[in-house]
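Weekly structure sync - notes
Attendees: PM, LS, DV (DV joined late)
Agenda: review two folding runs queued last week.

Item 1: First target. Sequence and structure tokens pasted below for the record.
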Amino acid sequence: RNFMAAIFVRASACVPAGTRLLHRGAPLLFRINTSLNPEDKGSATFTVTNPSTGKVLAHVANMDTPEMEKVITAAHDALPAWRARTAKERAALLRKWAALVTENADYLSHLITAENGKPLAEARGEVAYGNSFISFFAEEALRVYGETIPAASPNQRIVVLRQPVGVAACITPWNFPLAMITRKVAPALAAGCTTVIKPAEDTPLSAQAMVELAVQAGIPRAALGLVTCDRPKVAGAGKLLATHPLVRKVSFTGSTGVGKHLLSLAAGTVKRVSMELGGNAPFIVFDDADLDAAVAGAIVSKFRNSGQTCVCVNRIFVHERVHDAFLEKFVAAVSKLVVGCGSQPDTHLGPLINDNAVKKVETLLADAVQQGAKVLHGGARHALGRTFFQATVVADVTPAMKIDKEEIFGPVACVSTFKSDAEVVSRANATSAGLMGYFYTKDLARAWRVAEALEYGMVGVNTGLASSEVAPFGGIKESGLGREGSHHGINEYLDVKYVLMDLGK
């Protein structure tokens, strides 16, 4: 169970010579336990591997249902004491957690790269991004305000309280194994909730490290319960968290299909839910756009994390008057992207998370090519083997192709043309997804019209990156419910209570 040192040693096979992952006196990342009781050694284990090398990083507790139930019960038992702490006390502990994350940022970054495969520069960005939510919600803990409402009677007073929901189950994905935890857990703890975290089976190590740092900061271990299991047990774990009567809130980030299933399960006990689900993001380049800026925005939005983000560009629409010029610049930029091990300093694209992810990309590409799409760059597995895939550009994509309808979740950019604003807005909205949309234009009036017309929870205008701890992240339609980040994020973990006081005559 004390495996952090071994993780870094094994990860170093992908690190340039001379890189020091550990040093004498390295800060406190060595005691990581998935069990509530550090002495409990009853769990079987499953292996976590480095997707770049296939080498085993660690053996993690493969918990069964009774063990998970103990974690839920412990979180419920810890709730009264945590909820009773003042907002100032909770905020102080969150700030200590954030400070420890900053202190351990280099170690956490290497850990993310080891278990997820993303380039180290992106991993460092994720640590900073994830930590921003801890710092932000430490401050939001102090701003959970109630209300007073004028009553209909002079002898009555109306007060509105905001109180913690209770135990919150936080089910997180593998593509941002650290940031998706803090985006859920930080507001929950700030609100006075306790949590049970279920990280993805591909990337549980970042979760374990973050829980350990939170405990070192003084947050009760039971307030950050952690359940881990292998893929065959995932469905059972999700069902337990979504149906357990002691869990009052479920926050999930992942696929739309799984989200719908969890919603149906949570309905049985009428739980509060937040769902951040799949996307099918359009990226529109109008004829007045700054093409260099649009190319740069498309590159960062499409190929970040090798295309494995829910807000990645899925469909690029370029006005017919600038299509050829944009495509020339875009293909040239894509051709410069380096595929490789995430720990290598020149790498832009790491591996896909597993072979199933590669097979999905290959299937979508094959269907598009069969229907007339043209591969302008890439289009196949990379010579590095394993789950590395070439940065790919496909032109002449049509709405009939699966690649236009489904979330790709891989490094494949699909380009098509349009003639008018009305046409492209209609095509962009022709999807059940509604998470993120992007467009580039210099026309201010057009910017307002299109931003309001796009049926998405978030819209980036002249930018390919829009996520921030101070802004509400979330989608509409089948892309989800609720918001993460901003002051809206903490409200997802608060119940509203109306209190009527009658003062008598």
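Item 2: Second target, run right after the first with the same settings.
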Amino acid sequence: LGRMSSVRSYAVLYTKSHEWLDMQGDKATLGITDHAQKELGDIVFVEGSDPADEVEIGDDAGQVESVKASSAIVSPVTGTVLEFNRELENSPGLLNSEPMGK
């Protein structure tokens, strides 16, 4: 979904609320799991935090809406948002076809 700074680890981590976090040094990429996108169904809207926003563990880092439900994307780390994948604004269905891709 986007990149954050000020986090440290070396692997893809998964949360109980079905987000994933790809750790690369002090930066991380956050998204929703394949399981989450399957449960949501056809995703029709994605919103993420703006670059330079500060998020803390447990904060909403974004929102995903589908034909079935709306779901918050919960940040599993504290950090500064570096970017949001703006391609998801025009093509939210990418989360269905590539939840850990683009």
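Discussion on item 2: The beta strands are 2-9, 12-14, 19-32, 43-48, 54-55, 60-66, 70-74, 79-84.
Action: LS to circulate a short write-up before next sync.
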